Amino acid sequence: xxxxxxIHHDEVAxxxxxxxxxWADYAAFNEAxxxxxxxxxxxERLQPASAATTIRTLGDKTEVLDGPYADTREQLAxxxxxxxxxxxxxxxxARRCPSSRYGAIEIRPLADTYPKPDKSLRQG
Length: 124
Fold this sequence. Notes:
By secondary structure, the chain is an alpha+beta fold.
């Protein structure tokens, strides 16, 4: 089953973390994920939330806002794609993720491909 593991962390807490240890932990985590095989992939980091731009459209009016949508200390920081047997295995990987010590890890199953259109609805 395919999951996206979304990393949300407190940027201040992460900046105050012991950096050498944190990046060594991430190197070990990425190596373990690679050795596990399957379709799982190393994560992608995002720039800090201060670099975000949020677009919101209400009716015919569009707002462009500087910064993230959510007003919270924890911000979306990056993600990993997992291809594992089940949710329990995805949870085990989330527990091992170094950022779990500095925020929250959201595990979300990927949607199946879009359903094929019903041919009976086609005109012509």
